[in-house]
Amino acid sequence: MKRVSVVERALEDIGWGKYHNFLFLNCCCGWLTALMWQSAVANVMAEYPDLSLFEYTMLGISVSAGSAAGAVLFSSLSDRYGRGYIFKKIIILTSISALALILSANYVMVFISVFFVGLGTGGDVVCPPPVMIESTPPSRRGIIAVMNIGYCIGPLLAQISSLLLSLYWDTSIMARWRILAICIFVLTVGFMIMRQYIYESPIFLFGNDNEEFLKVIGRIAKENERFSFETRAPLLVNKQATSDENRVKTHLPFIEIFRGRNLKPTILLTSSISLFNFSFNGIMLFLPAFLQVDSMGLRYTIIGIQQFAGIIGLFVAMKTVDSKIGRRYTMGGGYLIGGILLLMFLFSTELNFIIILAVAYYFFQMMGVAGKNLIGAESFGPQIRGKALGFIYLVARIAAVLSPVVSGFLLDISDGNKLLPLASFAIGLMLSGVTASFLDETRPNLVKK
Q1: Looking at the whole model, is its pTM more than 0.90?
Q2: How many helices (H) and strands (E) would you count in the chain?
Q3: Is the distance from CB of 338 to CB of 291 less than 8 angstroms?
Q4: d(CA 19, CA 25)
Q5: What is each CA distance from 417 to 16, 66, 220, in whole angstroms?
Q6: Can you tell me where the transmembrane regions are (predicted)?
Q7: Nearest to 63, CA basis, from 25, 106, 110
Q8: Which of 172, 215, 290, 297 has the most CB atoms less than 10 A away?
């Protein structure tokens, strides 16, 4: 029996409802915000006037360092102060940092601002899965796969906005990167206000011996129109008092993610996700060259089709994660098939076939990402969930940063031949998928009432 089964059974009894729709929207917008700001910062780097190569590189390092630090910092703080509490504060930091970026008068201010924007978005990347999982009925956690739609829509919205600004905005009024940042800032403020109305994780509160978990469960039941559930609250008090084995201790040391049963998922998830990030970041750099599309309109059409295919992949993943395929094979299979499709690029010369491969590749990659975000959070207990996800993201982020460096080295030793780095990305993806298949399945086996 899980140590937090008292709360999970209560959530299962309440079922999915209005509050979960609201929480789902907030978590989805968390990822959307993070990805939009990552695209916005890339736009700043591309359009900021008179940047030297060193200054350009330092901006990239600043936002990457901020993102990695934010992931580790806020995920760890969420283990101590609460999932909902930290999740609410993250977007406030992002909003303030974004405003500072908009008002930046020189390069130094931009450099500092993008670090803190990265700090906030790093937290928004790792915090939504625990927030959602710890307030959701176990039987409905598969829907979290669709939450990854923020990964698809965020960059697409930023790219479309950037395209429209490049076509219609007069740069003599204001720089395009600045007006794009203003547009995303307005959205972020709206999301910030909306996020302040979510509740703290009842599982986190239960693990901290905080009787507020009863009030939170009662509020969730009320918002989900399960008014009769409130009469059963005393039963939870009795179970709480008589079931010490159900308790969890929070604030465990960081080293706990490398001890006991946590060691296996820490190693496997870190290896698999790092290999994926290395490969995915690399292929995103090389894909435009392989598509060989000169028309801007056609290029954005292909990007749109890719994102749409990715969204379909998320809905397919929502079904597979709760089927016999489960979380680990959704993740592993998506990455493995994506790697195989990537290998086919090596033998393809026809543009139409390459476009089909690119779309199919993105479909399976988003399936893998959906499985990853679910099994990643479920593989660890509530007491170290934040720390574990923060550590994994940190290592995976380093792998992503190293991707263009390794790619450049492979291009040098192969006299500019793009096939060698492409093959390394494909092999990396396949190894990522194989590694994920060794994870323990986390799909819940619910006890029938």
Answers
A1: no
A2: 18, 0
A3: no
A4: 10
A5: 52, 33, 57
A6: 21-41, 53-74, 86-103, 143-169, 175-194, 297-317, 329-347, 353-370, 391-413, 419-439
A7: 110
A8: 290
